[in-house]
Amino acid sequence: MTNDELVLRTATDDDYTELEAHIHGAFLDDVDEDTADLNRLVFEPDRTQLMTDGGSIIGSGLVITRDMSVPGAVVPAAHVTGVGVATTHRRRGVLTALMNAMLTEAHGRGTEPFAVLWASEGAIYGRYGYGLASSRVSYEVSVRDTAVVGALPDGAQLRRAVTRDVLDVIAPLYDRVRAVRPGLSSRPGKWWEYLTADPKGWRRGMTAERTVLFEDDGGVRGYARYRAKAGWGDTGPDGEIRITELLAETPEAHAALWRFLTTIDLVRTVRYNHGPVDDPLPHLVTNPDGLIGSADSALWVRILDVPGALTARRYAAPVDVVLEVTDGSFAGNAGRWRLTVSPSSADVARTDAEADLALDVRALGSLYLGGVSAATLAAGGLVTERTPGAVARVATAFGWHRAPVTVEVF
């Protein structure tokens, strides 16, 4: 086959079954009959790009329409997922064609100033203008070696429930936390139904998902979704808890949820893969060495509209700076931009003034969620300071008091 026989097109509903098999195969998996139709709940064929060869799907890239929290705001973002190329068609430009098509479609809408994705292989997406914008901490807690001390506050209680039965209270709580914590995605339409479907194929040998709620006089202030797995070793019980999602809007709720999860009978290990880098957990436990915490890459951000993105978010401090941005894909992003931030607004305009900082669109994506410092990027040679002191001013302004966190892999 030659590249002349490859066809790039938008998906239709009729492509779903073949697309599902293609994506699973690209990620070295098989389609599970019990879960195959669940992805239909959030499938957007008109935003899905396919590459076919002889009519068969050999490449895919999906965009999901969701908002994402950024420092001080909630902004529409193109959520990219399901990117895969058949091993028979590698190094033929398929991935580049798919990525360009998705980014061009999102850019053309004019409503999504940035795109965001999780990268299964981090070496891939920088060449398409994505910058690593956040990290996550995976915790393994040995409950024999450490503990979260304290007791429930007066008037507070914990309540266990089936997740689906308490969506009316945890969904609003999620939205309240999302409004103040960068990196969280909206869950419109059937997203809650999809995320809490809980088929056996998603359990990986563990129990059905359970939820524990923290309630006080103000109502439900935190929740944790989790699964359990029994185990027995030579010294007795060796059970495990895997946390699906833990969100709290008060320190009391956060501590109480972790205390509950680490004191369940017969459990020796608690695991959670989506902790923020500023999680207070290491400071709450009696022995931080009882935690194994490993940081991994999380979200990658691709700025599609420089002025739109920079005016959408808020800043930690006023700043007046000229940024010289390079972008090999979207000429409208390239050039010098003056960013003027006051306590109440941010303005961006083209300028002929000398640049204070020079950076690629990838570095701008890394800065965007407030989780990566301009000083860090400058130390790595990814930001060039043209005016002395500009890096420090930009690092302060673009920073945020809460690190970005993302509690699901989309």
Automatic annotation (TrEMBL):
GO biological process: aminoglycoside antibiotic catabolic process
Top-level taxon: Bacteria
Subunit text: Homohexamer; trimer of dimers.
NCBIfam families recorded: PRK01346.1-4
Listed Pfam families: Acetyltransf_17, Acetyltransf_9, SCP2_2
Keyword Acyltransferase part of the UniProt annotation: yes
InterPro entries: Acetyltransf_17, Acetyltransferase_Eis, Acyl_CoA_acyltransferase, Eis_dom, GNAT_dom, NAcTrfase_Eis, SCP2_sterol-bd_dom_sf
Domain N-acetyltransferase: start-end pairs: 6-155
Binding site for acetyl-CoA: 83-85, 91-96, 120-121
Active site residues according to the UniProt entry: 125 (proton donor), 410 (proton acceptor)
Gene Ontology MF, one: aminoglycoside N-acetyltransferase activity
Stated name of the protein: Putative acetyltransferase
Family, similarity comment: Belongs to the acetyltransferase Eis family.
Protein keywords: Acyltransferase, Transferase
